[in-house]
Amino acid sequence: MHIIHIASELAPVAKVGGLADVVHGLCRELNQQGHSTEILLPKYDCLRTDLLSDLKVETPELWVPDGHYSFNNTIWSARYDDLNVRLIETHHSQLYFNRGVIYGCPDDIDRFSYFSKAAMEYLFKTEKKPDIIHVHDWPTALIPVLHKEIYSKVGFKPKKIVLTIHNMEHQGRCSPQHLTRAGLPGNDLLDPDKMQDPYSFNHVNLLKGGIEYSDQITTVSPKYEVEIQSSQGGFGLHEVLIKHRKKLTGILNGIDTTFWNPEADSYLFQNYPANRASKTTLSEIIAGKEENKNQLRTQLGLAPSAQPVVGCITRLVPQKSPALIKHAIERTLEKGGQFVLLGSSPIPEIQNDFLALKEHYRTRRDVAIILENDERLAHWIFAGADMFVIPSLFEPCGLTQLIAMRYGTVPIVRLTGGLADTVFDVDTSTKPLGERNGFTFEFPDTGGVNWALDRALTCYKEHPKKWHSIILNGMRIDHSWKQPAKLYAALYKE
Ligand code: ADP
Asked: By alpha-carbon position, which residue is closest to atom 24 of ligand 1?
């Protein structure tokens, strides 16, 4: 099958969060399973072109209408690993993708609507014949609408269009005029069965358009599939999803186990077994983690200690419960442990709050707070920490618990979304003992965090054998893209 992904992110060249990892990991595995994929992305000025190979102009001129005007675009082709990438460089007067950021501009709706339109013009004019077009979240959710309302009528016919919802929180609400600019009948689409927002009747909703108009919808874990059909998890679109539940499937994300591989990770101070994780290699694993932990401490100025290191790597946004992350730091320190937080926030209040916290702990040698994006440090923490905290309010899939387990780092998570599908409590899960791989709590409050964190700290200190079996249970699970990609391929085929 020939599958074209149209997305706003691709790891690592244009990454904000998990969406980028999914597009990368899924396409790579689909290629390995004998399919052919292409990825269409905006050519952001902040795109890591240094990581690409064979970057060259493929189509020098592609005129794309925007309201009463038309703007030229240059289409580039490139490769990243074995991935075929097409980059749309727009010469729009608003310099849509020359903003130094991927998201966060006041005109994000216009930027990504224009990108969606340009992507469809490109596919139409170059007469591509994909079996599947696969779009991701609100930034490219307009594609199925553009297809049905415009491009299918002039003969462009991919077999089917799939939308993946990575996060319901962001939906792209806007006035119908934005659609009119993209050549769509904006006012006609302001209809409850089309794109009208269910709660803001004068607005259209791009994600809703994607749900109504795509042939299949996937989301990133089975539990999140259920949660988004509830008033709490659906962010206003639960009834739309219930209406379309027949075309909705939850497929758990994988991780790129070549990239995230303690055996070969070039960032690490010492590599250690992962694919061969078993009782016979346990001592190598523990020794490897110990060395990485000591080096992590040295790099971050933490004191040498026999106490465990608790890690957390996250975007600091309300979804991730910043207050509970702060609480987990305090609680860990109270209990004598050490804490390393790597995070950054697009929200100035939250960023400033954590800057103040960092200042508060400035003289302490048992806590390190790094408020940046740092890939190398992320690898050091995944390998060097003993446990990893994720107290999210909601978590569609969550990749960090999967990466942590791959590195033998025990997750402590709130039972929500993909966290609930992948982390099974040592004491309370109904899973067989050999599948229990972490500590969980149900309610997103300080009592919940204490309950799970305290049990983990006690287990680490007092029951090393049990602790080691939890590490191995986590490392043994195959969270590669092999199985998820098979499920996507089966869905495409259907
Ligand atoms: P989300 O997509 O909601 O941000 P996920 O857990 O699905 O959360 O994916 C987060 C990804 O981003 C992981 O690969 C994680 O390692 C990475 N990440 C998050 N914050 C940072 C940071 N400050 N520095 C480096 N990597 C980060």
From this structure: 373
Closest to 428 measured CA to CA, from 408, 413, 418: 413
The residues near 478 (Cβ < 8 Å, ≥ 6 apart) are 257
Residue nearest to atom 9 of ligand 1 (CA): 18
**Roughly how many angstroms between the first and final C-alpha of the chain, as a whole number?**
12
Tokens standing for residue 330: 């305090």
pLDDT exceeding 90 applies to what percent of the chain? 97
| Residue 297 to residue 131: CA distance in whole angstroms | 50
Average pLDDT in the 360-387 region? Answer: 97
313 CA → ligand 1 middle, Å: 6
Pocket perturbation via mutation, ligand 1, pick of 400, 409, 419 by most ligand atoms within 8 A of CB: 400
Distance 70 CA to ligand 1 centre (A): 37
> CB within 8 A of 76, min separation 6: which ones?
43, 55, 56, 57, 58, 86, 87, 89
Average pLDDT, the chain: 97
Q: Are 190 and 159 in contact (CB under 8 A)?
A: no
β-pair type (69-80, 83-90): antiparallel
Residue ranges around ligand 1 (CB below 6 Å):
17-18, 21, 313-315, 342-344, 373-375, 378, 397-400
